[in-house]
Write a structure and sequence with these properties.
By secondary structure, the protein is mainly alpha-helical. It has one domain: Orthogonal Bundle (Ribonucleotide Reductase, subunit A), CATH 1.10.620. Bound molecules: fe (ii) ion (2 copies). One fe (ii) ion (FE2) binds next to helix 5 and helix 6.
């Protein structure tokens, strides 16, 4: 059943109407969700009409419908990719056995934890971004922000459906708590560190959409392989929505870079900031911050939990079926660089224990594509500057590199050197104040703030000066 039933209170393609108890439970959760959206979603734009896309089918061709919607009227629902006949568990000890359509009792706790951890990031990002609407550099960008926000809300729905449908009372309690934690709240924070970091400026937002949403992509890719089939099918559809978020991040930062390059060429003797642009060096610092924070999201380099998730068929590797031949991973090892007495020492660890590091490596490789895209923009303007990803050891708060100090190339340094260099590597208070000072709204169709270039084209075939948000 690929098409989505919009006649229901909760749009869905899972035949919700046939399970009255579940339907009632979700319909009870719905007002709590809307209350959360009202309190913690984008401020002050609830009555505005926004040109948004809504899923109408989960088929890969043309699943989206575009039209004006006010955000609280957005049709959040439950959309899964269709059931494949005879899907098999694609990795781990149960490799090749039929995928589970229900939760195996022995994996209940682990699966719930995996789903809740993913679920928690979705409302968290909406909370982090809630004030950005006031300083949007254009209507085009404002619309993109809101598109990302409503889709993160939908991802929460996707995960809450699984919790309600498969985890009974525990699942319903978890669904309540997902609406109670708050990003950045000292008493009830969101589960993962990056999702408690403030996003005060659009530069942070673009970096977040580029680097933190990309963590989301890789977590979803790993869960899309899960032996628990409903989770796999949920994540597959979420990935199609996620692609737009990454586009917003990569092209958003690309447009900031483009504007800066234009300013540099027009005023070769001045600093970009004198003409209201953000220097390339300053953008590099924001990149360093968001990449290192997002790199932490993969957890410990050597992890028995990760080995266990793989062994039991709960969480695989990205592109497990396409990218690997050995799906059992009992043989072989993975080389990890440990720090022993201040020196880097290579150590082979059993493959299964390195699953976090393997996913992190795939993520970092994917990040590089965005950096290459930005460097092309710089080069096109004839400017001698190259963006670089910080080394995976740089500025880490989780895993084996925590507590030690490394430069941008991953070379061990002492704390004194770190303290001396830090202000050149990561945004300082003054940097943040400057970027914040540029965040003045620009709300005329087709007009853009001075620190960002317009996009090459509009959305869904619309012109750039289209009225993406009716204010
Ligand atoms: Fe998401
Ligand atoms: Fe996202």
């Amino acid at each position: 059943m690929a098409s989505i039933d919009y006649s229901q209170k909760i749009p869905n393609n899972v035949d919700l109407a046939s399970d009255k108890r579940l339907q009632r439970a979700l319909e009870k959760w719905q007002p709590s969700y809307l209350k959360w959206w009202h309190e913690m979603g984008p401020t002050d734009f609830e009555t505005k009409e926004i040109y948004l896309r809504t899923a109408v089918s989960v088929e890969s061709d043309g699943w989206a419908h575009f039209g004006y919607v006010s955000m609280p009227e957005y049709r959040w629902g439950v959309f899964l990719e269709p059931l494949q006949n005879d899907r098999r568990i694609p990795f781990g000890d149960a490799y090749g056995k039929p995928a589970w359509q229900d939760v195996p009792g022995e994996y209940r706790t682990d699966l719930r934890r995996l789903i809740v951890t993913q679920a928690d990031t979705e409302p968290a990002s909406v909370e982090q971004q809630r004030l950005l609407g006031h300083t949007a550099p254009s209507l085009y960008d404002l619309r993109n922000l809101f598109q990302v926000n409503v889709e993160e809300g939908r991802h929460l729905w996707a995960m809450v459906y699984l919790l309600h449908r498969y985890f009974g009372k525990d699942g319903r309690n978890e669904a309540e708590e997902l609406l109670e934690r708050r990003s950045g709240n000292p008493d009830r924070p969101r589960i993962l560190g990056t999702f408690n970091e403030p996003i005060n400026t659009w530069l942070d937002f673009f970096c977040f959409a580029m680097f933190t949403d990309r963590d989301g992509k890789f977590q979803l890719l790993a869960l899309a392989e899960s032996g628990f089939d409903p989770l796999a099918r949920t994540c597959r559809f979420m990935l199609t929505e996620e692609a737009h978020h990454l586009f917003v991040g990569q092209t958003g930062l690309g447009r900031v870079i483009q504007r800066t390059c234009e300013v540099m060429n027009a005023h070769p003797d001045a600093q970009p900031r004198e003409h209201g642009a953000i220097s390339l060096e300053l953008m590099q610092k924001y990149i360093n911050f968001w990449v290192s924070s997002s790199t932490d999201l993969y957890g410990s380099e050597v992890s028995s939990n990760a080995a266990n998730y793989f062994a039991t068929g709960l969480k695989g590797r990205a592109y497990e079926e396409k990218a690997y031949q050995d799906h059992v991973a009992l043989e072989g090892s993975y080389s990890i660089e440990k720090i022993v007495a201040g020196e880097i020492v290579k150590e082979e660890v059993p493959l299964r224990n390195a699953m976090n590091e393997i996913l992190r490596t795939d993520y970092l490789i994917d990040n590089q594509k965005g950096v290459d895209y930005w460097n092309k923009i710089v080069k096109r303007h004839g400017i001698d500057f190259e963006f670089k990803l910080p080394h995976r050891r740089f500025n880490r708060q989780i895993g084996m590199y925590t507590g030690a100090f490394f430069d941008l190339d991953g070379k061990p340094i002492d704390e004194h050197t770190w303290n001396q260099k830090k202000a050149g590597w990561l945004p300082t208070e003054r940097d943040r104040e400057f970027v914040l000072s540029l965040m003045q709204p620009c709300r005329e169709p087709g007009k853009f703030a001075a620190w960002i270039a317009p996009p090459n084209k509009g959305l869904n075939g619309q012109p750039v000066d289209f009225e993406y948000v009716k204010l």
